[in-house]
Design a protein that fits this description.
Blueprint: H1 3-18, H2 24-39, H3 43-47, H4 50-55, H5 59-66, H6 72-84, E1 98-102, E2 111-115, H7 117-132, E3 147-150, E4 158-160, E5 163-166, H8 168-174, E6 184-185, H9 188-191, H10 196-206, E7 212-217, H11 219-232, E8 247-250, H12 259-263, E9 271-278, E10 281-285, E11 294-296, E12 302-308, E13 338-344, E14 351-361, E15 366-372, H13 386-400, E16 406-413, E17 419-426, H14 434-448, H15 450-456, E18 460-468, H16 470-480, H17 495-507
Parallel strand pairs: 1-5, 3-6, 3-7, 7-8, 8-9, 17-18
Antiparallel strand pairs: 1-2, 4-5, 9-10, 10-11, 11-15, 12-13, 13-14, 14-15, 16-17
Helix pairs in contact: 10-11, 13-14, 14-15
Protein name: GH3 auxin-responsive promoter family protein
Domain GH3 middle: 299-362
Domain GH3 C-terminal: 391-496
Amino acid sequence: MAILGNIIKGVIDLSETLFSETNHIEAQKNTLKQLLEKAKNTQFGKHYNFEAILASENMEAEFAKTIPYFDYNKINEEWWHKIKEGENDVTWPGTLSYFAMSSGTTGKSSKRIPVTDDMIEAIRKSGIKQVLSLKNFDLPADFFEKEIMMLGSSTDLEKNESFLEGEISGISASNIPFWFKGYYKPGEEIAQIDDWDERVLKIAKRAKDWDIGALSGIPSWIELMLQKVIEYHNLNHIHEIWPNLQVYTSGGVAFGPYEKSFNALMGKEVTVIDTYLASEGYIATQVRPETDAMQLNTEHGIYFEFVPFKPEYINEDGSLAQDAPSISLSQVELNQDYVLIISTVSGAWRYIIGDTIEFTNIERAEIKITGRTKFFLNTVGSQLSVNKMDDAMRFLEEQFATKIPEYTICAKRGDDGEFYHFWYLGSEKQDLDTEAVAKKLDETLKNANKNYKVARSKALNGVKVNLVSPEMFHEWNAKNKKKGGQVKMERVMKEEKFSEWEKFVNKN
């Protein structure tokens, strides 16, 4: 009998009677007040007079009116560089222990984002919320005695002056509580290996020693790890070596594009739980099985604002116009894409994280990620967002009986001087008729997006498709950034980057 598992499950079930349903609008007002109170004596707080914002009749409106939007470059050039130079109390009180390194999806150079002790605590609280929500997923007691494979970046953080630096997944894993270490795999020794291929080989060699009940990590890298384990042990599927695997906690990107290829590695159905952990904080987590939407972590150190995602508010380079209006959680609507703005206990203020979201349930504060502001393709008025592109990939998978976990697109002029959308699809099958694929892709986008349909009748001349192996995308990431961790493929490329990509594909 799973005695420990029953105890843990009992504690989780009991939490439902101990904790009342969150009023997310009130929680957000309290969070903003707490942020302003704690940071009012920082350099940033004094510069923007947080005291006056706190004393105003409408704190949320005054906050939005007083403080400009910041992207990484703006806040780094004006404020965060002071932290790196050794100054204290810059945008958050006290000293700093960590910087999260994030190359994201849009560039080779890493961003260095402050991670305070308060943020680590906020991430821990959001993690507890995720664990407690498992009561909703009807998992058996013995699940809570199994081990958890957390595949993030290396926990061997680099020392840079007085700071430790690494990706947020590595920072989080290096701060796991002592009681969790017995459950945590691949364990501290393997997790510290920086070289991705070496780390995954070590995991494959040790896989038979572990009883894995849950996986956690970015889908593309989880898949590669599972493929290596299956290949190393000559298996048909992963459940032959980890028969008790029941849960996969996805994150970093939408799981939809990877669903078909992920399920092909399984021997039986696995519960997929979406999470939204960014370098800037733990944004949201799925808390119930009836939906794959995620609930914003409204109580744990992050204040959210939302800008309607409309072309007139987005600059040519994907940045946000300073005069774009923001709204609070109390004002959002369903079926509207929003640019996500966050202010956090790490001293990010009205920070443009770069993602777009939509609400699926306002009362529960549940959202879905719909894309990236820089991956919004609006050439000649086509107005394509990543979620529309993802949906098109799922349609092509069904139509051509293949798997397409990766893709990228560029809008540019062809040899005839006309505008086309040039697609590279990472398809399991590369012998498909590319003209037939292009025709189906074009048709489904026309049906899904009226702006695209209008653009196709005017300046957008057509669609061109190339099929390559999904592995090509992984190797591209390895060349330009590195394998594993938080690294994600850019879905939309500018012409200069796309030219590099095409040279890379042709060479390989």
